[in-house]
Amino acid sequence: MPSLHAEPKPRPSSSLPTGPQAALSALSPALARVFDDSARTVAAQVQACLGDDADALLALLPAAARAGSPEGYTRHLVYADPMARFSAMLLVWRPGQASPVHGHRTWCAYRVLQGTLYEQHYRWDEAAQLARPSGGAMRETGAVFSVPAGLEHIHSLGHPGRADRGDGAAADVAISLHLYGVEAAQIGTGVNLLVAAG
Fold first, then answer.
1. Cβ contact 112:143 at 8 Å
2. What's the pTM?
3. Taking the CB of the first residue and of the last residue of the chain, which one, N or C, has fewer CB atoms within 10 A?
């Protein structure tokens, strides 16, 4: 029986021709439909799983963390799936705080647990290599939304209030639960796909 030994480091990949490949180009629209359908299914299933127990989810954050930070919105890891399938974070938003414009490297689903958030939508302009504003939506307490990986759904999420009003007290803060299809160690680099907007 041959013995197996792990290689100390991966071998370099071979260079295949780049550019559109006919077989993959034909497959792309079908795969896109699958991923879009998956995002809608995730949103419905997340909503069903989370139910109306916002108080129990909010209780995961210590009172001091619920106040947020004047430096920017804060993210708190509250669960990491032991099989590395997903991670859950609670995000705390003070008035005027927002995420950068981004697509996603993985699927994402979120639920607004407290307050109201505004989601600014963008469409990808391939020729200009920019995200262009394309409307938006208020996300009230209880709203659940899901997006697939890629540039199909580019957005920025934030607290619609003005930073010069309110004092950052708990009543002024919005809190949302976010689920990402990555393990906890990849939260910092494996979720947001930052893009320029114009």
1. yes
2. 0.80
3. N
